[in-house]
Amino acid sequence: MGYLALLFIVVPAVEMTLLVELGSRIGGVGTLALVITTGVVGASLAKRAGLDVLRRIQTETQQGHVPTDALLDGAIILVAGVLLVTPGILTDLVGFACLIPGLRGVMKGAVRGYLARAAAKVEVVTPSPAPWPQEPFVANWPPKTRQGPVIDVTPEPPPSDRQV
To answer: pLDDT digit string (tens) for 94-116?
Structure first.
């Protein structure tokens, strides 16, 4: 619940406080223009960075490499794009920070560490002993059939088609 409270309560409250303070200093029209400008410029930069990463992913894949680094870049750029189109000062600052390659490298290191810790917690459990015979197809061959009366379901031709 802590992270959700931060995401849905604290961040919007801080954003509103910053926007109100900024509006009192530069005016409502200036604040609105700033929010729209950062959204448009940020979306454009995120799109360009995303297309560059997509080209890197394609190149690395064609060379037979797994593009893990480029995929992490793409995920961070996606988050940046979402943050940049969200109205606010704090989200815009974090979004622009995600687009700076040096800072994105630091973020990738943090994401890698988180994923490594999460993967270390995964435990795979297999049933023992196996719940099926070692040779399932041989043991159950031939298949069991049910015997019963044979019913002919072939339709009879209409009376006009019968030959006399």
So the answer is: 999 999 999 999 999 999 999 99
